[in-house]
Specification:
By secondary structure, the protein is an all-beta fold. The strands form 2 sheets. An 11-stranded mixed β-sheet has the order 3-4-5-6-7-8-9-10-13-12-11, with no helix packed on it. It has a two-stranded antiparallel ribbon with strand order 1-2. Strand 1 and strand 2 form a beta hairpin. It is built from 1 helix and 13 strands. The chain has a domain of 136 residues.
């Protein structure tokens, strides 16, 4: 198997110590990768089946365009993790960089299926141009969460920086912690006691905003009422 090292192609065996036996069925294959992988990119790119377990930190673009199978990272991942994925599951025990489940610059094809779970924090623009699937973040999120998203679901158990859902056309974003600021082109519609994400009931109460009306969007942005007292003034519009 050939892989890139810089701008040169190398045999995988020249870069890693490899043991184990091949299997005829991709579904039965589990790859275990250990070491300092911060400069290794595109692990699991275009993956269709099987399982990859990574013990260590990982470089950019893990799980790029994956359509099936499962990737488990017992560490942190760099930017563009799960970018443009259409299926499968990516779970990160640590934190993730910018553009989680997003599109590349100049493209509108973000994540359209599958599930991404991050137990730590994530950087900016997670879910950029997201069209489907589920992103669960147990830590905090950077700014512009779900920017330009047109489908799918995102839930953040922690806090979120500025302007979640900016340019949003459709889909659902749920933030259980503190939000520093929201886009003024969202309009409050209701207060909901609970909200469901991928079948999971999350207890509120939540302010429900609709937008981004500047882009004629009708996405749903749910923000914890109890954690965001600075948004109480919106209640006069109900």
């Amino acid at each position: 198997m050939k892989v890139w090292e810089g701008n040169k192609k190398r045999a995988l065996r020249d870069l890693f110590e490899i043991d184990g036996e091949p299997n005829d069925s991709p579904r039965a294959i589990t790859l275990r990768i250990s070491g300092d992988l911060r400069k290794v990119r595109m692990i699991g790119a275009n993956m269709t089946d099987g399982k990859i377990i990574v013990k260590g930190n990982v470089g950019m673009r893990i799980g790029e365009k994956m359509s099936g199978g499962e990737i488990l990272v017992e560490g942190n991942v760099d930017s563009w993790a799960g970018c443009m994925m259409t299926g499968g599951r990516l779970e990160v025990k640590g934190s993730a960089g910018d553009y989680l489940g997003a599109s590349y610059r100049g493209s509108r094809k973000g994540m359209s299926g599958g599930e991404i779970v991050v137990h730590g924090n994530v950087g900016n623009e997670a879910g950029c141009f997201m069209r489907g699937g589920v992103i669960k973040i147990f830590g905090n999120s950077g700014g512009f969460l779900g920017v330009h998203m047109s489908g799918g679901e995102i839930v953040v158990k922690g806090n979120c920086n500025e302007y979640p859902g900016a340019g949003m056309l459709d889909g659902k974003i749920v933030i259980c912690g503190l939000v520093s600021s929201i886009v003024p082109t969202f309009t409050i519609e209701d207060i909901k006691e609970t909200v469901k994400v991928n079948g999971e009931k999350i207890m509120g109460p939540f302010y429900r905003f609709i937008g981004d009306i500047a882009d004629h969007g009708h996405g749903r942005l749910y923000i914890s009422k109890n954690r965001n007292l600075h948004l109480k003034s919106y209640e006069r519009y109900l």
